[in-house]
Specification:
The protein has about 120 residues and is of the alpha+beta class. About 15% of the residues lie in helices and about 40% in strands. The chain is elongated and about 55 Å long.
Amino acid sequence: PVKRAYYESRATKEVSAYNKALADFLTKPWVDQIDAIDYTGHPGDKIRIIASDNGKVDSVVVSISDNAGAVLETSACVFDGENMNWVYTATTTQAVIAGLKVSVVVRDLPGHVVERSLML
């Protein structure tokens, strides 16, 4: 019912809710940008993600791992409607950020998952 209401709210005279849902089902989301310029390895630092979809991006999760692949922290992002991006807020201290990997997992309303990463 929630998904149906979403697609019905996007329907137009020219494109039905069914066609909106079908188009969304056939298209994966994408990551436009990972902005880690404000990340310095301290709690409270922000990483901003611009993620898009022809329908709706449902969630964005960020993980930070070391060069051996061990996950140091992970959490869901919060959507910032004012700036139209997703914001991850760091929770741990990292003494050295060179060589860390920021992994982004984006999920859309139909459940497609896309991953992208950035090496710091």
